[in-house]
Every structure is written in C-alpha cells, then in structure tokens.
Write a structure and sequence with these properties.
single chain; mainly alpha
Length: 95
Amino acid sequence: MNDESLNRLLTSARQTPPDTSRAEFGFETRLLAGLRDERSRKAAAPLVWRLCPWFAVAVAVLGFWTLLQPPDIGFPSVGQADDLLLTELLTGTTP
C-alpha cells in the first residue's frame, strides 16, 4: 500500500462520523441502574454500623462467660478414660 492510498483511506475514515447508536441505546437505563446500585450500597453501610454494638456486647458476654467457667480439675479426657477403664478391667485395680 503506498502513501497516497493510505492517506485517502485515513482521510475518509476521519470524515465518516463514528456510529454511537449502540452506546446510546439504553444509556438512561444503565445510568439509573448505576445510581440505584450506588444508593443501595450507601443505605446498607449504616445498617452494619448499627449492628456493631450488638456484636461487641455478644463478644463481651461470651468472654465474661468463659471467665465464670470453673477451672479444669483434672478429669481424664475420653481417650484417657478408656485406657483407665481397660486397665481396671484387666488388672482389677485402679492405677
């Protein structure tokens, strides 16, 4: 392709207006949907902040509840209890 035909091709491309009908189709709908989505996200944020004190109270109550639990007094766990039971059955005495 020589320079003259390339220049004619570029000149005709510059003179032809771009087809924006596809971008224009549904523009208002897309714009309003975006605004509605942004508004709903802004409306949901205060709900989270309003629930934060309740979550803090729940964590505080659970933390306080764990402090009120009696300490572990050394009962054997399930696996150890099975071993102790087997030893008692085989020997007749408790170790």
